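Deliverable D2.4 — example input (structure tokens):
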């Protein structure tokens, strides 16, 4: 399994009990959607390795899991590892909701300025997620907020926006 064919699910936080159980943090909107997982991929030495899950149960705002055929020491060695799942495990979104990876390459059309170009990248490591749009070699950054995103047309690979007054002009001057 390749990392680009997967999404980040969360990480293993710490051991739980003496039987090799582990506390898992799921970095998703609805962790309970994943309570019946049969396996996860863990990133080990820059490779994704499949680990089958024997049991999993909710615990506070996390999950407690036991992986198949792992000793307590082997399980403890997985603390801090990142977990991944194939992209097909993501719930389908509709309307104006989208996964950042799915809109790379979509065209952006502003209600006043028209076609702005295509989404090259999403910056999500800031307070406000931003779309980086390639406009004839110039970069335009547009905030990903409900007030800006007006319509997501998946079949057309198009997102219609209404940018705040003057924002686009800053980049095109």
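Example output (designed residues):
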């Amino acid at each position: 399994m390749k990392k680009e064919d997967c999404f980040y699910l969360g990480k293993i936080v710490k051991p739980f009990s003496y039987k090799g159980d582990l506390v898992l943090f799921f970095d998703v909107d609805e962790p309970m959607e994943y309570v019946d997982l049969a396996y996860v991929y863990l990133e080990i030495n820059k490779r994704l390795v499949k680990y089958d899950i024997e049991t999993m149960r909710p615990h506070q705002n996390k999950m407690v899991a036991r992986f198949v055929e792992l000793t307590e020491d082997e399980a403890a060695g997985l603390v801090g590892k990142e977990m991944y799942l194939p992209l097909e495990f993501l719930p389908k979104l509709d309307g104006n909701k989208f996964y950042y990876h799915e809109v790379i390459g979509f065209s952006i059309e502003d209600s006043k300025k028209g076609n702005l170009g295509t989404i090259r990248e999403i910056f999500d490591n800031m307070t406000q997620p931003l779309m980086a749009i390639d406009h004839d070699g110039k970069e335009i950054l547009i905030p990903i907020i409900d007030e800006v995103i007006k319509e997501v047309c998946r079949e057309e690979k198009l997102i219609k926006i209404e940018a705040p007054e003057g924002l686009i002009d800053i980049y095109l001057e």
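The mean pLDDT is 93.
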